[in-house]
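Record Integral membrane protein, 170 aa.
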Amino acid sequence: MSTGKSGAAGNGANGTGGPRRSRAGGGNPSGAGPSPGRPAVNGMSAPVTPGRVGLYLLLLIAGVLVALAGTLVQAAWFPGGLLLALAGTGGLFYGGATATGTLAGALIPGAGWLLAVFVLLSQVRPEGDFLFGAGTSSYLFLAGGIVAAVICATVAQRRAAGVPHGRVGG
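=>
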């Protein structure tokens, strides 16, 4: 006896008459993107609001200020000052990523930090004044700040993507 419905005929492949859903689709029948009523909040695709733009602007300014303070502190007290300057940069980048919940929260203060360090502070004035000496501490501050920005951006990206913590495979 036939009921008139076949598994692969006309009304969807699952025989229920509705569209076929996959587990990876997240409830959206097309399987592409977020559900219709919910905006994507992972990575750089968070909704743009005036508050979020203001927060990003504050993070950019904080990145410049932390770079200025770190430049002065790392040279003044060599081992402790360098560690304090790097802790300040890492704290700003991680705090920005945590406060916004996006990858941009770590990248925007990192961009302000890089702008201040490489463009504004690395210029040698005609009088011979400069803020970065040619010592090991300056190079460790430059490399450590870049590494801190990359680590914090990677952690923010993994958290936004929903990657679970722990071992792979069990």
